[in-house]
Amino acid sequence: MDRKIEKTRAQRLMKHWPYMAGAALLLAVGCWLLFGNHASTLRISADDVTVSEVSRTEFKDYVRTNGQVLPIQVVQISPEEGGIVVEKVVEEGTHVKKGDVIVRLSNSGLDLQILNAEAELAEKQNLLRNTQVAMQQDRLNNMTEQAQLDMDTERKQRAYEQSQRLYEQKLISREEYLQAQEDYQLSQKKRSLVTKRLRQDSLYRTVQMDQMEDNLENMRRNVVLVRQRKDKLEVRSAIDGELGLLDVELGQSISPGQKIGQLNDLSDYKVQAQIDEHYIDRVRQGLTATFTRSDKQYELQVRKVYPEVREGKFRCDFVFRGPRPENIRTGQTYYLDLELGQPEQAVLIPRGTFFQTTGGQWIFVLSSDGSRAYRRSIRIGRQNPQYYEVLEGLEPGERVVTSGYEAFRDNEVLVIR
């Protein structure tokens, strides 16, 4: 008779062992996910990084840039009249006075215009003289006619008065009396009409003469202006200064208004700088800047800000406040510190190449023992050539990695050996 064999406790446990092992593995994974450190870690050498300390100190809000010395004013040389270059009186680099001749031009067409204008003026003058003679003759004729009419009227008046007396004495007929009366009245009307005509003719001739005189005067002024144009064939200096550029050759044809050179006003100087467009909203007229030369500090002031941005930079002109450096020359380069605001206390970290990778949004902060560095989000505010202003994320006394982060990639923890 068969007997049923009972399984031992150990055999029963071995049967459930795979399930128990799986549960334990799941529990371990859960604990690791819950309590473990999952940050990606990179081991680096302490010699490969630069460590800087966060401090709270005075922040000087300025930007450093280089500027070039230029004359305070540059005057363009552009002849008002065109022509052929026949003489270069002075050379580049020569100091000239206002009114000095720089270049002489020749223009045969302008000479012809002068001759034509003078000939036309002479013709108009002859015409005016002939007109004046004719008008004087007409005036004499009118005066003669007026005198004859006056005399005729007086005679008719005497004849009428005599006929009237004879008619009253019945010595002449009524018809003779009426004819004498009518002759006298007709003579009066003729004299009145001729007097009006002569007066109108006189007014007309006076207006005509005034117009001709005006035209003649305009022609005289035109001749003067044309002659002055010939004087402008001598290109002269507009200021006292230095001839900085003269781009002409003998025999070259120059057009009116064409730029052929420039004059540098050396009575003073300015400094022109190229500044990063990041600061264009903060740079304004009146800000001060300083630079050091030969162990002496000099002060400048913003005179003009050019709004146009080219290749990420905008131009700014500075003028001196106070003394100028000795032996200052056009083209020299000065390194300027442009003040954008007043100094004030702030949390600062030294500038470093980490900013190129992070954009100032995060940084590696060292642990207290310096063995590890952890990634932390921060917020950067203003900056100057030496420091970044930290608005959030760091406290004074902490140490941070300020060297480049290119090799760290996406690691969040650095183990420093």
Compose a concise summary of this entry.
This protein is an alpha+beta fold.
Describe this structure in words.
This protein is of the alpha+beta class and 417 residues long. The protein has four helices and 22 strands. It has a six-stranded mixed β-sheet with strand order 1-22-18-17-21-2, with no helix packed on it. The chain has a six-stranded antiparallel beta barrel with strand order 4-11-14-13-12-15. The longest helix has 61 residues. The protein is elongated, with a radius of gyration of 53 Å.
Spatially, the strands of the biggest sheet line up as 1-22-18-17-21-2
Query: So how many helices?
Result: 4
The tally of beta strands, per DSSP, is 22
Distance separating the two termini: 77 Å
Q: Estimate percent helicity.
A: 25-40%
Please trace the helix and strand order, writing H or E for each element. HEEEEEEEHHEEEEEEEEEHEEEEEE
Structural class: alpha+beta
Proportion of β residues?
25-35%
Radius of gyration: 53 Å
| Mean pLDDT score | 85
Major β-sheet profile: 6 strands, mixed
The shape is: elongated
- Stretches where pLDDT is under 50 for at least 5 consecutive residues are 32-38
Helices and strands, with pairings:
Elements: H1 9-35, E1 41-44, E2 51-53, E3 55-59, E4 62-77, E5 83-88, E6 95-96, E7 101-106, H2 108-168, H3 174-231, E8 234-236, E9 241-246, E10 253-254, E11 261-276, E12 288-293, E13 296-310, E14 313-321, E15 333-339, E16 344-350, H4 354-358, E17 362-366, E18 372-377, E19 379-383, E20 387-392, E21 399-401, E22 413-416
Parallel strand pairs: 1-22
Antiparallel strand pairs: 2-21, 3-16, 4-11, 4-15, 5-7, 5-10, 6-9, 7-8, 9-11, 11-14, 12-13, 12-15, 13-14, 16-20, 17-18, 17-21, 18-22, 19-20
Helix pairs in contact: 2-3
